Amino acid sequence: MSTHLYLTRHGETIWNTKNVMQGWKDSPLTDKGVKQAMQLADRLSTVSLDAIYSSTSERAINTAEIIKRGRPIEVIKLNSLRELSFGIWEGKTFDENEKATPEQWFTFWEKPHLFSSDTVESFKQVQERMVNTIESIVKAHPSENICIVTHSIALKLLMHYFEKIPLEKLWSTPAIPSTSLSLVKISEGINEFLLKYDTSHL
């Protein structure tokens, strides 16, 4: 008995194209982002999805609704699948944040295991809520196919947990492409990667 998790990141957004940080804040999908979601929907059209979960951010919900197409299921929205909250960095560009808080910015990108902030959510917190959420979803859907639409850092932290990659190496792996597809087979607590950040549908 195995549960298959189809994990993806939302489509490209306007703020993505402007290097604006959008953790719990939001911006709409671009035309390209909608197309990416449609291409992923095509890819998954032959997969019998038993449930679709999404972060409560509109960019993720919109991506999930496109993936859903005519399936007679509702997209289940969970706050715990949201992106890392960037606190005071939200809605500002990378350059603006680097200039405003250079030491914190450096630690965030160069020493993530040491990063702490009064307003920015910690990597450990995000990883814990993602892992707990996925474990609950897997428990609720034994031997089913589940699609989960989430965000770049949240998904990276989850995948690194599966792969046992330590937090200090968070940025050692490439950025996760929009609507890339990862497929994890979970059987009796054993995680097997069948796909990882695949973009062959784009």
Describe this structure in words.
There is one protein chain. 37% of the residues lie in helices and 19% in strands. It is α/β, with parallel strands linked by helices and 202 residues long. The relative contact order is 0.23. A 6-stranded mixed sheet has the order 3-2-4-1-5-6. The protein has 7 helices and 6 strands; from the N terminus they run βααβαβαααβαββ. The two termini are 31 Å apart.
Structural class: alpha/beta
Distance between the termini: 31 Å
What sequence of helices (H) and strands (E) makes up the elements? Answer: EHHEHEHHHEHEE
Count of spatially separate domains: 1
CATH topology: Rossmann fold
CATH class: Alpha Beta
Please, what is the average pLDDT? 97
CATH homologous superfamily name? Phosphoglycerate mutase-like
Query: What is the strand content?
Result: 15-25%
Shape: globular
CATH architecture: 3-Layer(aba) Sandwich
Compute the gyration radius: what is it?
16 Å
Please give the share of residues in helix: 25-40%
Describe the main β-sheet briefly.
Answer: 6 strands, mixed
